[in-house]
Write a structure and sequence with these properties.
- By secondary structure, the chain is α+β, with helices and mostly antiparallel strands.
- It has one domain.
- The protein contains 1 helix and 4 strands, in the order βαβββ.
- The strands form 2 sheets. A two-stranded antiparallel ribbon has the order 1-2.
- The protein is globular.
Length: 52
């Protein structure tokens, strides 16, 4: 397996379910293991941080 996955959500869903406003999130249809991916951390649970 190559480890690729999709990460799709609209701004409305992100705001309603995760309570993250102004996320500047771009849906990704083919995420690779080496790409920066939006993550929610315990340190900042109301914003995305980007990690590889």
């Amino acid at each position: 397996m190559c480890g690729r996955f999709s990460f799709l959500a609209t701004d409305k869903i992100i705001e309603e379910r995760l309570e993250i406003h102004n996320s500047n999130y771009t849906p990704r249809y083919n995420c690779a293991p080496g790409q920066n991916i939006a993550i929610i951390t315990n340190i900042n649970p109301f914003a995305f941080e980007y990690f590889k």
